[in-house]
TrEMBL record:
Classification via SUPFAM superfamilies: Immunoglobulin
Domain Ig-like: 38-110
Gene3D superfamilies: Immunoglobulins
Family matches, as PANTHER family: FC RECEPTOR-LIKE PROTEIN 4 (PTHR11481:SF64), IMMUNOGLOBULIN FC RECEPTOR (PTHR11481)
Organism whose genome encodes this protein: Ameca splendens
Name used for this protein in its record: Ig-like domain-containing protein
KW Disulfide bond (keyword) present: yes
Amino acid sequence: MEKTFLSLLFLASLLCCTTNQAVLLTVSPSRSQHFIEDSLTLSCEEDGGSATWIVWRNTTAGGVSQCGIKWGRQHGSTCKNSMALRSDSGVYWCESSEGAASDSIQLNVTGGSVILQSPVHPLMEGDNVTLSCLTKTSFFNGPATFYKDGSVIRNVPTGQMTLHHVSSHLTRMDSLCW
Ligand SMILES: *[C@@H]1O[C@H](CO)[C@@H](O)[C@H](O)[C@H]1NC(C)=O
Ligand SMILES: *[C@@H]1O[C@H](CO)[C@@H](O)[C@H](O)[C@H]1NC(C)=O
Ligand SMILES: *[C@@H]1O[C@H](CO)[C@@H](O)[C@H](O)[C@H]1NC(C)=O
């Protein structure tokens, strides 16, 4: 059997405590992994506040820096990176001029032909989560195998799997889409 695509990826979301953050950093497309040259929109979403939030990041190559200086364009509380590079992989968060900050999210930009679409924010116990293999242009409809801690948990014919009512045991998942 020929493997057209091979990717080893994981759902890094840990089940954790409920956070009551005043501001939430979201990313569009809404996933942790991204392709090179993807256009990313990072938005700081605040409940009812009027502060302006700046997106900051910490990357291996560039260290800690804010959007609009050496990367991205900041407009209001939104930062746009119109062409993602591998070196954009890192930890991202929102910060106000008063120094308040959101929780951070990990974004990875990979050079592979298939990625795993998995949630950016931590899951809560009992959530349903759908994991999908994704190519640059569409969902990947070929067969996929999902692993948890190295053991196969499911083989699916169409590159997509939903886990119902996730438990706190779910901490790390790998997938092979081919
Ligand atoms: C940035 O990331 C590096 C490497 O992971 C870490 O050592 C450093 O403490 C981080 N800096 C901040 C301000 O988070
Ligand atoms: C992103 O890459 C870092 C460093 O290679 C890794 O530790 C992390 O788990 C990756 N996260 C995702 C969601 O791929
Ligand atoms: C999860 O999926 C089940 C079965 O489809 C559904 O009954 C339930 O309402 C879903 N739970 C949430 C939190 O969406």
